[in-house]
Design a protein that fits this description.
The protein is of the alpha/beta class and about 280 residues long. It has two domains: about 60 residues; about 180 residues, Rossmann fold. It is about 40% helix and about 20% strand. It contains eleven helices and nine strands. The strands form two sheets. It has a seven-stranded mixed β-sheet, with helices on both faces. A two-stranded antiparallel ribbon has the order 1-2. Strand 1 and strand 2 form a beta hairpin. It is elongated, with a radius of gyration of 21 Å. The site of S-adenosylmethionine has 24 residues, from helix 7, strand 4 and helix 10.
């Protein structure tokens, strides 16, 4: 713990040293983000005023945050929040921490300009709430099989003032047949045998991560469910993992979307598969 009256620079240096020794990938960034948040300043201000003396409660809170981070708890869980597009979401261990690459699904929504969206597997509500935030005329329905996730998403919607525009459903899919303009899903897609960094494998919910032997089992089951329930959409966008583009495109063909496109993320990895051209249900 930083000594009483410690300067920000000393507390940061000690945290960075211990994070580095523990093998944490971004030691400086993590230390600065944690201390800035706990001191109630932005990171640039903290860096500009590194000689400031930390107040005792801030020093204590930082030392606790460092202790948690050394156990490889993700920064977002320690702070209890994560930014996504233009909104900030409360997050805890019941939900996956939203990733920047998932913003590609929100980009797809902006391109498609839908009046109605179904999001399957909403977690914290990131995609559903960002769509509601950025497309004010759009009605959003969001599902999740995890009751903890639905609780987090409903609370996020209320806090963001978006509760009136998003219907959350506990379960995989809405109950009856329906026709949406757009379906979006970032379902679990990590192959069961893949090793994960300690921040992910040790902390994020297993049910949000693993998707069977090749990672596509949950996607496949949800697509089957959509077909069986006659839930359709002109356009569907699915987040996928590395090397899954071809397999998920084939699944989309089989589920009734004849035209498919695979989009790569900034790292050049297959990240989103889009299906178009389905016939409405019924
Ligand atoms: C990878 S997380 C994505 C969460 C959020 N949409 C995001 O992008 O940050 C997948 C979510 O899908 C949910 N899930 C898993 N299987 C599901 C299924 N068969 N139907 C609906 N949701 C499911 C999990 O509980 C989890 O919250």
């Amino acid at each position: 713990m930083p000594a009483s009256g410690a300067k920000a620079a000393e507390a940061l240096a000690a945290a960075i040293d211990s994070f580095t020794a523990a093998g944490i990938e971004t030691p400086r960034l993590d230390a600065e983000v944690l201390l800035a948040e706990l001191a109630g300043v932005d990171r640039a201000a903290l860096i500009a005023d590194r000689e400031q003396t930390l107040e005792a409660p801030v020093a204590r809170a930082f030392s606790e945050a460092v202790r948690r981070r050394l156990r490889r708890e993700p920064v977002a869980y320690i702070l209890g929040k994560k930014g996504f597009r233009h909104i900030e979401l409360a997050v805890d261990r019941r939900v996956l921490i939203p990733r920047p690459e998932t913003e590609m699904l929100v980009d797809l929504a902006l391109e498609a300009g839908p009046a109605s969206v179904l999001e399957v597997g909403t977690g914290s509500g990131a995609i559903a709430l960002a769509v509601a935030d950025e497309l004010p005329g759009c009605r959003v329905t969001a599902t999740d099989v995890s009751d903890g996730a639905i609780e987090v998403a409903v609370a996020n919607a209320a806090r963001l003032g978006l509760g009136e525009r998003v219907d959350f459903i506990l379960g995989s899919l809405p109950p009856g047949s329906a026709d949406f303009d757009l379906i979006l899903a970032n379902l679990p897609y990590v192959p069961d045998s893949d090793g994960l960094p300690p921040e992910v494998g040790g902390w994020e919910p297993e049910g949000a991560l693993f998707g069977g032997p090749d990672g596509t089992s949950v996607i496949s089951a949800v697509l089957e469910g959509l077909r069986d329930r006659q839930i359709s959409a002109a356009v569907i966008g699915l987040e996928i993992g590395q090397g899954q583009g071809e397999r998920v495109s084939a699944l989309l063909h089989g589920a009734g979307w004849p035209e498919t496109e695979v989009r790569l993320d900034l790292a050049g990895i297959d990240r989103v598969v889009i299906g178009r051209g389905s016939r409405p249900a019924g």
